[in-house]
Amino acid sequence: MKIDQLLDKYLKGEASLEEQQLVERWLENPDQAATVWDQLDAGSQDEWLQKLYRRIAHTIDAENKKTIKFKSWFKVAMASAAVFAGFLLALLLWPKQKQPTAMASWTTVSAATGEKHYVMLEDSSSVWLNSGASIRYNTALGHKNREVYLSGEAYFDVKHLPQRPFMVHTGKITTTVLGTAFNISADKLGNQVKVAVARGKVQVAKEGEVLGLLMPNQQIVYERQHQSRVQRNIDTEVVLDWLPDDLYFDNITFGEAALALAKQYDVQIKFSNEKLKNCRFTGTIKKDKTLDQALRVICEFNKATYKIKNNTVTIFGAGCE
To answer: Which of 33, 45, 127, 282 measures 20 to 30 Å from 297, CA to CA?
Structure first.
């Protein structure tokens, strides 16, 4: 059932307890509410708000009329008032919160023409940007949803966090995952968007309408001009042929580099001193280098040593402030 239908049932008092909880969770998340809210004209918005206020006020009055002890009544009244205040604040902030550029913590990273750029995000997800591509993201990557805005082509290797979906916006197309690896290619105008999955499962949607659910070695191509989409099986290695085999580190921390090395060589990397993770450096690890050779180069950059035991690497050193 669509959210507008749920809202209608909620306002009429016909929603079940489960449906009421769905509406309340929806109201608490302004980013999800923006699409439906924007579709209403000013008069409809005002009417919708008035109905909601009356509905909540009626609930508060009903609670207050119950014959209960003063202490319990006080708790109910305070809880109801808190819910009302929370809904009101969420509704008032919708127009502001749907604009990510208003947040000072958003940053943009780009790959220069003719170059490829590696980015390690704060949640330990990694991104390779193809020539001329750029991403814009919140440095905190949110507390619930991790959102990235992409222009151009990029390969994402997303850390699995079940409670925090990872969303990539390319124009009106949104790609949502929990933890997987996939490639997105979109022109600057968003006329054509291609999403290909290398690992895991990806959902692709346009303004809330699901276009497809992709599994490994599948791709969806969306054409804005014809409002068409095609889903097909592919050889992901061909799509990812643009990815570099070498590891490029451009002014990143030792901690970020360790995550990339762990993925590249399928090992666990630990630090004896947490301050080591703060050290920054720039360098390149060629694809033909062994793990031992790669560690030797990176540790030399950061004045550190290492020890390999079984499948675990431990880094030692004074670290950086």
So the answer is: 127
Global pTM exceeds 0.85 = no
Q: Which domain holds residue 259?
A: 247-317
Q: Which residues contact 242 (CB under 8 A, 6 or more apart)?
A: 116, 130, 153
Same domain, 217 and 274: no
Contact 117, 110 (CB under 8 A): yes
d(CA 54, CA 110): 49
The domain total for the chain is 3
Residues 238 and 110 in one domain: yes
**Co-location of 133 and 224 in the same domain:** yes
Instruction: For residues 222 and 190, give the distance between their C-alpha atoms in angstroms, rounded to a whole number.
Output: 9
Angle at which helix 17-27 crosses helix 3-12, to 10 degrees, equals 120
CA-based R_g, the chain, Å: 25
Q: 214 and 110 share a domain?
A: yes
pLDDT of residue 57: 52
CA distance 150 to 168: 7
Please report, for the domain that includes residue 189, its CATH number: 2.60.120.1440
Residues 74 and 150 in one domain: no
C-alpha 90/C-alpha 86 separation (Å) is 6
DSSP assignments along 85-142, one per residue: HHHHHHHHHHHHHT-GGGSTTEEEEE--TT--EEEE-TTS-EEEEPTT-EEEEETT--
Q: What is the pLDDT of residue 249?
A: 77
For 159, counting Cβ atoms within 10 Å of its Cβ (0-12 exposed, 13-18 middle, 19+ buried), the class is middle
Whether residues 261 and 238 share a domain: the answer is no
The whole-number pLDDT of residue 286 equals 77
Work out whether strand 146-157 and strand 117-120 pair parallel, antiparallel, or are unpaired. unpaired
Average pLDDT along the chain, 321 residues, taken 10 residues at a time: 63 70 59 48 55 55 45 42 46 44 69 85 86 87 79 90 88 88 83 91 91 93 88 91 77 85 87 91 79 89 91 92 80
